[in-house]
Design goal:
Number of domains: 2
Shape: flat
Radius of gyration: 25 Å
Number of strands: 0
Distance between the termini: 64 Å
Largest sheet: none
Length: 106
Amino acid sequence: MIFENAEKYSISAMCKALKIARSTLYHRKKPQMVDAALENAVIDEFRRGRNNYGTRKLKVVLNRRGFMVSRRRIGKIMKKYGLVSNYTLRHKRKAIRQSTMTQRVT
């Protein structure tokens, strides 16, 4: 509607009348690249490492194979296919002793 009437009225005036930000007109969502070769390489290297590799180790191994990928992207692929390392441990929260807390408060 706004682009059809852009010749008659200014875009900023129409945006003010419709009470929308002008930037929303120009915002386009970036298309997600689906790289099947990368996904297959992540799965292959994960299985080759006997399900022990995490994102850090997979990044190094994939870099040797010629894939320049971030750990975050590898993590997203692992999450998508349900790949969890055998060495993934829960971080336990350390309990603070009562005597330590009283020292900090005073």
